[in-house]
Design a protein that fits this description.
The complex is a heterotetramer.
Chain A: E1 9-18, E2 21-31, E3 36-40, H1 47-55, E4 62-67, E5 70-71, H2 77-83, E6 85-88, H3 100-106, H4 114-119, H5 124-136, H6 152-164, E7 170-174, H7 182-195, E8 200-204, H8 208-214, E9 217-222, E10 225-230, H9 232-236, H10 239-247
Parallel strand pairs in A: 3-8, 3-9, 6-7, 7-8
Antiparallel strand pairs in A: 1-2, 1-4, 4-5, 9-10
Chain B: H1 2-12, H2 16-19, E1 30-37, H3 44-63, E2 71-78, H4 83-96, E3 102-104, H5 108-121, E4 125-127, E5 140-142, H6 147-162, E6 166-172, H7 175-191, E7 195-202, H8 210-219, E8 223-227, H9 231-242, E9 251-254, H10 259-265, E10 274-277, H11 286-299, H12 307-326, H13 331-337, E11 342-346, E12 349-353, E13 359-360, E14 364-368, E15 374-379
Parallel strand pairs in B: 1-2, 1-3, 3-4, 4-5, 6-7, 6-8, 8-9, 9-10
Antiparallel strand pairs in B: 10-14, 11-12, 12-13, 14-15
Helix pairs in contact in B: 3-12, 4-5, 6-7, 9-10, 12-13
Chain C: H1 6-41, H2 48-69, H3 77-99, H4 108-130, E1 146-149, E2 152-155, H5 156-178, H6 180-190, H7 192-197, H8 202-224, H9 239-248, H10 254-274, H11 277-294
Antiparallel strand pairs in C: 1-2
Helix pairs in contact in C: 1-5, 1-8, 1-9, 1-10, 2-3, 2-4, 2-8, 3-8, 5-6, 5-8, 6-8, 9-10, 10-11
Classes of the chains: A alpha/beta, B alpha/beta, C mainly alpha, D mainly alpha.
Chain lengths: 248, 393, 307, 383
């Protein structure tokens, strides 16, 4: 284990149950700064639920979630976001009938209160930021396109871009490359490496090739618990992991 | 030209410029009046009878040669059971159509909504419903009974007949039942020396009376005094009957059930209960026989006539009498001559307009039978209308 | 209440208990059809009350026919009429589903508005056909009496409605959880496209479910002729209560509807006994609203993983 | 200033439409109609305030409230209480047992003015109350529900129950509220007789001007970031939440704002109609307010106002001629609007209203310019 003062996010003994079914149970997870940590595991292992618990979408029934010394459990979702945790959903959730530019602009962290929204102006700073994020995600050519007509991969990148607008310290991505072409996958991997330079990224992924490409560390989940953790090399040789995947 | 006009005027009636100095919709051979009831909405149930009765009276008057030689034409407006709509339509009738008079309204709320309009625009309203009193206007003739006329004699009768000491007062939750029960309570406590053991109100449209019925059973009043209206009425009496509260065990006097309501409640659910009204369809006199026959001829054998329907029927006749007495359609003159106008042809018998614009009338107690008709058991003397009763406020 | 004997209090207690039960059965009957349509299909049927009124008018028509042509049958016709009401309302329901509802499944709030328009049309239709006045079907005498034991009177019509609601609830639960159609219905509710893919005719399932809900409304309306009025607006008197029952039960579960009908009935019955009429009703509504504000998912929600 | 105007009107057509509307209600109607009809138009327009609120709340933000009548009623009752107190001076109520209190209180044996009526002797307080009371009530209700993520159908049903509670509550306390009859026979405002023709003209113009300002405010909101956030909340609630917005407070605020607008509408209604009663705030009127909005176009501010005018005018005109056919027509119109023209009359006017209204035309050019060459002009910082 890393020493705790270096970790940006520490999750300990996290658990939640739905009608008696323990979806996540005694989950421990430590995230170092500027790393890409991938959570893998068979279907129903509780991966998405873990993200839901961290970002406050689902209330945990036990355990601690410590982010930069602050307890996240019990905080409302938008406050967790404002503290610096961004979350992308499995299906691209963008504003389909706004343009790419407007999608990014709407994610700009300034003026998120009701009155802030009323007074929000499209300043130089806002435009610059949108443009630079659009460059990062490779959409600077289609700023004035309506987001609904983007390709599936572009939509995924746009949503990542919308997270980047907020300068989060942790980004959580739920199966970002599902349904992508090989070319798009490569581009996404580059993007993830790029954005992890100054923040940590948690990724849920099934595609082992992709995981190998991006992961600094890998956490393997099964039945709501961590069964293995470490480098890709290490976990792929872990007999417990092999058993789970073959048994599955 | 003048000659021709006045010739025609002589034949048909007095010249228009003489009988109409305020610009009402009166021509040489017609006069336009308004009719303002709810043809739609929750109150349509109750107001249909009034619409029919007023139309019947107007047809009869026209057949007799009209008013001052002028045929009555009617503009019908729908208040749609909605008070702002009533006010809007009243204003339209008075301001745009310049009608000579209006027959209309049913609920107190609709009357309260139009009253300021009638007073401001100086119109005349013939209002047919028995109501709570506490009102008197130059611009309204109240052809139904005000509360004291309907309540006091009825309570006196039931107290004596049934030796009743304890009363349970029930009403729908609005001003008429509340004011009526207030008068009833004062009369029971101060004059009859009885006791009110319960008094409560249910929202219009309330359909579940189980708890109330149990409270009645607990208190065992000598008389249930009920002023429940509308759809609640039906639920109330059906559930009373089903809970075993029938006329064999319990005396019930109501001032809100007429033949119209019985149609919805079903005579079998009311058998033996009493209503206090000034009119019942079964009244045995020549006027009424002719009226009932004419009504059934026009609206079918199954048509029923309740107290308000009869009161509405009086409206056009009273207006005709007033216009002819004044020799003019002018509202001010009609208002002025209205006191002491008598009607001997009224189905309910003899009525006379009091200076307070209400009618002198009798009170009758009817006992309901299975066929939906009441047997009249008691008839009072003519009672003076007293909309602001001393000692009852 | 010092003036009463223990026996009197006891019999009032029994009757009040029954009155609560009776209200419970009324609310349950009102709510069941709606719970099926709203809870299972997500459609908000504002014309539910008008389907109930149609059931009541069916009884009225049948009672007239019976009285005219088969007078000897008068004591029994009522039971059969309930089935007729079920069929009539079910057929109209299927028609309405075909005409309106099927186009709006993806816009639940709009079903609310469209069915409101439908309710206006139905009300006016009743008014044109049957007149604005309330009508009174001639009910069998045996139905309108009461069982009497000493001071206790138990209304037969209350027992009848209670029995009917138990039967209808039982059949519905059986139908949904045990029958083949119920399985199809539940799978369609959970995953429409998947159900379609495995060969379930979801169009037919939707139509049948909607018709079934409307048919139950018809049964309720028919039964309510024993305790309430039959008029063009009768239905609108029930609609808010019916919705509150379904919503506070947690829309997705029939058990929730039963539970909330029971809770609301007891609350209203007790509050009306101790408070004055309107105040009792307002207090009941306030309790429901506050409960819903604290537990928006209803009293008996079905817990699922958020997605 | 041009920037400000651009925030109000995204296209030339919108601006022309708005001006045409002003000409219609400010010039043509007053010239073409007798004061009686004009007064009716004024009454219809007082529902326009509610409709504008519903455009923001329901059309834009996706929250359907079936209880807007409650707030219409709160505003209306505040105004009516003030006018009633002025009409109930001891002289004109001298025949009462307790002169100086409203007549219905006297009928209900009240012998003193209830405490909560006292402040309504003051006009400034009344005007303040017309804004504050609906806002506070809506805020409490909205906050309680939206914070728990109650929305959609549940919110609609609960607000409908609120409308029922409010009208039952007023019915049941007639000594304090006037009960079912409402508060009637309102006469003067600070001695100025509101029933005269002159007054009705003045009140009509006041209503129109207030409505126009409200419409501009709503258009402004729609075209700011807040307007885009509202639509985003409607379409992608979770995404908005996870972009760091407090969705609950956004919804609560727009609910409260819509409530304030309804309250203003209620006050204008009372001034022009001369009374207030619970029949205007119950379940049916509350749904009718939604109908106006839907027919006119739930996304369009001007559409909703036009919807109010058309539906109410239709109600008056058709119910005069064919009272029976009216309900069929109303029901039929409503079903067909929902099924075939979900964006109402305004939706017919624009081909793709959903998209059009969301993509300000100017933005495209600006971004294009921005993406190719750096803009040199300085834009004032809004923060």
């Amino acid at each position: 284990m890393d020493s705790s003062d270096q970790n940006i996010l520490e999750v300990e003994d996290l658990g939640v149950s739905f009608d008696g079914f323990k979806a996540v149970d005694g989950f421990n997870f430590y995230l170092a700064p500027n790393t890409v940590q991938v959570i893998i595991g068979p279907n129903g292992a509780g991966k998405t639920t873990v993200l839901d618990l961290i970002c406050g979408k689902t209330a945990a029934t036990e355990g601690k979630i410590n982010f930069q010394g602050k307890e996240l459990r019990g905080e409302r979702e938008y406050r967790i976001v404002r503290m610096g945790i961004g979350r992308k959903f499995q299906n691209p959730s963008i504003y389909e009938n706004l343009t790419v530019f407007e999608n990014l602009e709407l994610s700009h962290p300034r003026g998120r209160g009701v009155f802030g929204c009323l007074l929000f102006r499209r300043t130089e700073e806002v435009m610059d930021r949108c443009l630079s994020v659009a460059k990062t995600i490779g959409l600077d050519e289609c700023l004035d396109q309506e987001a609904g007509i983007l390709s599936h991969g572009q939509k995924q990148w746009l949503e990542i871009g919308m997270l980047l607008m907020q300068r989060p310290k942790v980004i959580m991505l739920d199966e970002p490359v599902a349904g992508m072409s090989v070319k798009e996958r490569t581009k996404t991997a580059e993007l993830i490496r790029e954005i992890s330079k100054d923040r940590s990224v948690i990724v849920i992924e099934h595609d082992m090739e992709f995981v190998r490409e991006i992961a600094d560390r890998v956490t393997v989940m099964h039945m709501g618990q961590v069964i293995s953790e470490g480098s890709m090399e290490r976990v792929s040789n872990d007999p417990k992991v092999i058993e789970v995947y073959i048994g599955h | 030209m003048m000659m021709v006009l006045s010739m025609a005027g002589l034949l048909a009636g007095p010249p228009t410029e003489e009988v109409n100095t305020t610009g009402l919709a009166v021509t040489d051979d017609t006069v336009t009046v308004g009719q303002l009831h709810s043809a739609t909405g929750t109150m349509a149930i109750s107001e249909t009878g009034s619409i029919q009765a007023e139309q019947l009276a107007i047809d009869q008057i026209n057949a007799m040669g009209g008013v001052l030689g002028r045929q009555i034409e009617v503009i019908k407006e729908d208040g749609a059971s909605d008070w702002p709509t009533f006010a809007e339509k009243a204003k339209k009738l008075l301001v745009s159509d310049k009608v000579g008079t209006v027959f209309g309204c049913w609920t107190s709320a609709s009357r309260k909504a139009v009253l300021p309009v009638f007073e401001k625009e100086n119109g005349m309203l013939y209002y047919p419903t028995f109501y709570e009193g506490l009102e008197q206007s130059k611009n309204v003739i109240y052809t139904g009974q005000e509360a004291t006329q309907q309540i006091i004699a009825g309570l006196d009768w039931i107290a004596e007949e049934k030796d009743a000491k304890t009363f349970y007062l029930i009403g729908s939750d609005y001003i008429w039942p509340r004011t009526s029960n207030k008068i009833a309570r004062k009369h029971i406590e101060n004059v009859l020396g009885g006791k009110v053991v319960g008094e409560e109100y249910y929202a219009l449209g309330h359909t579940q009376f189980g708890s109330l019925i149990n409270k009645i059973k607990l208190k065992k009043p000598d008389v249930i005094y009920a002023i429940v209206v509308g759809g609640s009425n039906v639920s109330f009496y059906k559930q009373l009957k089903a809970a075993g509260i029938t006329s064999e065990k319990q005396t019930l006097l109501t001032i809100s059930v007429t033949e119209d309501e019985v149609l919805g409640i079903g005579g079998e659910n009311l058998v033996g209960f009493y209503s206090a009204m000034k009119y019942f369809q079964s009244l045995d006199n020549e006027n009424n026989k002719a009226f009932v026959a004419a009504f059934k001829e026009k609206y079918g054998e199954d048509a029923v006539i309740g107290d308000v329907t009869q009161a509405a029927y009086l409206g056009p006749w009273l207006w005709k009498a007033a216009v002819e007495k004044a020799g003019s359609f002018d509202i001010d003159k009609i208002a002025e001559v209205s006191p002491d106008i008598e009607l001997t042809t009224a189905p309910e018998g003899y009525v006379k307009i009091h200076p307070n614009h209400h009618l002198w009338s009798k009170l009758r107690i009817g006992q309901w039978g299975e066929d939906g008709q009441a047997e009249v058991l008691y008839e009072s003397e003519l009672i003076e209308p007293d909309p602001f009763p001393e000692g009852y406020q | 209440m010092g003036d009463y004997t223990a026996e009197e209090l006891q019999s009032i207690f029994i009757m009040q208990g029954f009155s609560g039960l009776s209200l419970f059965s009324v609310l349950l009957l009102m709510g069941l059809g709606l719970a099926l349509i709203f809870g299972q299909m997500g459609v908000i049927n504002m014309a539910h009350g008008e389907f109930m009124a149609l059931g009541a008018y069916t009884v009225y028509l049948c009672s007239n026919i019976t009285e005219q042509f088969f007078p000897a049958f008068t004591p029994y016709y009522f039971v059969i009429t309930i089935l007729v009401a079920f069929v009539v309302c079910g057929l109209l329901g299927a028609f309405v589903e075909w005409l309106l509802i099927r186009h709006l499944y993806h816009r639940p709030l709009d079903t609310l508005l469209a069915t409101w328009g439908l309710s206006l049309i139905l009300q006016q239709t009743y008014r044109s056909i049957f007149g604005a006045r309330e009508v009174s079907p001639r009910l069998p005498d045996w139905l309108m009496g009461s069982f009497t034991y000493g001071d206790v009177d138990i209304p037969i019509n209350g027992v009848f409605v209670l029995g009917l609601s138990v039967i209808v609830t039982g059949s519905l639960v059986y139908f949904i959880y045990k029958s083949r159609f119920g399985l199809k219905l539940r799978s369609t509710v959970q995953n429409r496209s998947m159900s379609g893919a495995v060969g379930i005719n979801t169009v037919k399932v939707d139509r049948l479910a909607f018709a079934l809900g409307c048919g139950i409304a018809g049964i309720a309306g028919a039964a309510f002729t024993t305790i309430g009025s039959t008029g063009p607006d009768s239905g609108s008197r029930y609609i808010v209560d019916a919705f509150l029952v379904v919503v506070s039960g947690g829309a997705a579960s029939l058990l929730g509807t039963v539970g909330s009908a029971f809770g609301i009935a007891q609350a209203q019955s007790i509050l009306e006994f101790f408070l004055e009429g309107t105040k009792g009703k307002v207090a009941t509504l306030l309790v429901i609203v506050v409960v819903l504000m604290i537990r928006p998912q209803g009293l008996f929600p079905s817990k699922v993983r958020s997605h | 200033m041009p920037l400000f105007l651009k925030t109000l009107f995204k296209t030339r057509g919108e601006a022309i439409g708005f001006i045409a509307f002003l000409v219609l209600v400010l010039v043509i109607f007053p010239l073409a109609m007798p004061v009686f009809r004009l007064n009716l138009v004024g009454k219809y327009l007082s529902f326009g305030f509610v409709a504008i609120g519903l455009v923001l709340l329901w059309g834009r933000c996706g929250v359907l409230s079936l209880g807007q009548g409650v707030f219409f009623g709160l505003g209306g009752y505040c105004m009516a209480m003030f006018l009633k107190l002025e009409a109930s001076d001891p002289e004109s109520t001298s025949i009462q047992s307790t002169p100086g209190i409203p007549d219905f209180m006297d009928w209900n044996q009240l012998t003193a003015l209830p405490w909560f009526w006292e402040p309504f002797k003051s006009l400034p307080f009344t005007i303040l109350a017309i804004f504050v009371v609906p806002a506070v009530v809506a805020f409490i209700i909205g906050w309680a529900m939206f914070r728990r993520k109650v929305g959609g159908v549940y919110f609609a049903i609960i607000t409908q129950a609120l409308a029922l509670i409010m009208s039952l509550g007023i019915d049941g306390n007639q000594g304090y509220t006037g009960g079912r009859n409402g508060i009637t026979d309102l006469r003067t405002l600070l001695g100025w007789d509101i029933r005269t023709e002159d007054a009705q003209y003045t009140l009509y113009f006041l209503c129109v001007v207030l409505l126009a300002l409200t419409a501009l405010a709503a258009k402004y909101i729609i075209n700011t970031r807040l307007g885009r956030v509202l639509v985003a909340v409607r379409d992608q609630e979770d995404r908005v939440r996870f972009s760091g917005y407090d969705v609950a407070i956004v919804r609560t605020s727009v609910f409260a704002f819509a409530a304030v607008l309804s309250g203003i509408g209620g006050a204008m209604f009372v001034l022009q109609v001369g009374f207030m009663s619970p029949s205007i705030i119950g379940i049916v009127p509350s749904i009718e307010m939604v109908i106006f909005t839907a027919v006119g176009g739930r996304l369009s501010v001007m559409g909703a106002i036009i919807g109010c005018l058309i539906v109410n005018w239709g109600k008056t005109a058709f119910s005069e001629a064919y009272p029976d056919a009216w309900l069929y027509l109303m029901g039929g119109t409503f079903i067909s609007v929902v099924m075939f023209f979900p964006n109402g009359i305004a939706g017919l006017a624009e081909k793709f209203p959903r998209i059009r209204s969301l993509i300000p035309a100017s933005v495209t050019e600006r971004i294009k310019g921005m993406a190719t060459k750096k803009t040199t002009k300085t834009v004032s910082d809004g923060q």
